[in-house]
Amino acid sequence: MAEKIKLKIDGMVVETKKGATILEAARENGIYIPSLCHDDCVEAYGACGICVVEAQGVPKLLRSCATAAADGMDISTRTKRVVSSRKIALELLMSDHEGDCRAPCTLNCPAGTDCQGYVGLIANGEFEEALKLIKEKIPLPASIGRICPHPCEQNCRRRLVEEPVAIAHLKAFAADSDLEKAEPWLPKTAKNTGKSVSIIGGGPGGLSAAYYLLIKGHNVTVYDMMPQMGGMLRYGIPQYRLPKEILDKEIALIKKLGAKLINNVKISADITLEKICEDSDAVLAAIGAWKSSEMGIQGENLEGVIGGIDFLRAVSLGNPPKIGRRVIVCGGGNTAMDACRTAVRLGADEVSVVYRRTRSEMPADELEVKEAEEEGVIFRFLNNPAEITGQNGKVTGIKLRRMALGEPDASGRRAPVPTSDYETVHADTVIMAIGQRTNADGFEAVKKTRYGTLAADENTFATSKAGVFAVGDATNDGADIAISAIAEAGKAALTIDAYLNGTEISFKNAYYSSKETAAEDFEGEEKVRRVPIRLVSANERKSSFKEIAHGYTNEEAAAEAMRCLECGCREFFTCKLLKTANEYEINPERLKGEKSGGDGNKNEFIKRDPGKCILCGLCVRSCAEVADKTALGLIGRGFGTVAAPAFNLPLDKTSCNNCGLCVKLCPTGALTELSSFKKQVPVEEVLTDVLCRLCDRGCTVTVAAIGEKVVRVIPADAGSRDCILGRDALIKGFLSNQK
Questions:
Q1: What are the C-alpha distances in Å from 44 to residues 53, 86, 622?
Q2: CATH value of 196-290+438-500 in 3.40.50.150, 3.40.50.300, 3.40.190.170, 3.50.50.60
């Protein structure tokens, strides 16, 4: 029996066998010490420097993976000195690490939706799994997929080849596929907590928060001042873009989860905030921004001048205003596009959009602008309203001031500069679509910002009133796109859940590595045009409020999804480097320099990406010590050292037998599996039980082979999670290694 020793680790007395390392002693006793270069199947190496600890009476830090534990040692694993050393080591590693932890599309989505993940699932025909993944971040995907300005696509790398992947359309496709079922998918909910949450506002933010809080097991009541739930999705987005039947189906699913939905209730008029607080364990305000902004010019009070949101709401309620023959819409955002295209459908003879900058600087979606032009909308760029003219209290026209572009402003767009030229244009109606404001009546007990919005902590979403939280357009900087409100709602739900459980939760931005790319990096990529969405013709759609776009078929969706370049790291969820880096507040940019990198290569099964390599040596050591091969080695000296085959040969020109152990042990995704070793086993297969000798564990595996060629390894002892290889198929040429 091995001799035992005792030592202290972080004040706890632990026991281990004599000869064990400090790292082994810690792990045996459930004490976490990070390490990137160590695995039990290879000899200790101490390359990464992350596992350092401090021993009482020892002046230098010790690498716990390579230092034997001694009887009576007093070890500390998280002293200020240890943490500082680990941070520097991680910053050095990350400063030379080049790769996309997450795909640019995901990083540019306010909700952090795993766009690459669900696009990949759609490409594989796994539509329900795609829907489940989407709903982790977006509870209303059929609606959002239709109306979101898709910032994800703006960063899609496919745009460097030809066109970005149609991520938003694919989101809508997955959701529509689910809604067409007799029983659409619903998430499982936790056991009822007995806690109650009241949500004020039934728009995308409020409904999303309700969805997530219901999943947590809380009782949720949603109050809304309008006749039906949906907020701006219902009353600010026209029917031709978002059919309300689709929205109704998605809201019905939230109701089916257990939400109590109460309409026609306005705070201060019908119920007080104080009363709601008395009846609830927590309250979330998601009241939106329902007031149209004013320009502060003469004539805004004339009959025939209406705010963009007010106009769209009136149409949605079935009470469209009389707009006459000529309509001027002021503004350059998507609300202005919705307003002008709605005016066309209401029968106006001439609809113009006035915008003070040029077309290239319009914040509206380019497709919206193009479709508006097809429907006959006139765009008057570099013009700004100076005065609204009228007669007998009614609008007759608008005086426009000609603008020129000056220097870029804070947003990066060139600032409009007024000239001395004016023009007056006749108009029967002027629609001001230049922004939205919040009406915070009834929320006097909550501190406001200088903009009149509810002041909410940007990290916890808590307001100045205890137990009251706030998200969306009504908070802080004001109105934003719907997906931003949904993103905040998801986080706020977690905050409220923690609050109800007597704990706290805080959100901090995760550290992600990213890779700079240019069009030349994709020169070898086959050009495949984006699968177009079938649109109703302009002549037909401008006289109807029916939905103008027909979604993808199954085949079209799969084809479009196949265009994804899969930018994000495939090892994201298992990457030890990323996990460890986010345990410390690192700043690798301060050590930024030329990256060593090198050329990657691959064989049939394994891909090497030297840009992600941190020279931990696990691949080299496991190849030599476990697989008894020399396919990989450390080449070069100093900062130029790389882990690669000798002479930088392709892997299939080396002694590599594709055992996959290097892939299994790589802590960074520098080595990844391209495809599974699973093959279709022919009828003439030969099944053999053999002893696996790729390590010293002596597992028995069942091998399907034809002669000397392995076609499948059937999981047995070595197919369990305990196997260091951790693969469905262990090696190509397995039988030859048994001789």
A1: 16, 18, 11
A2: 3.50.50.60
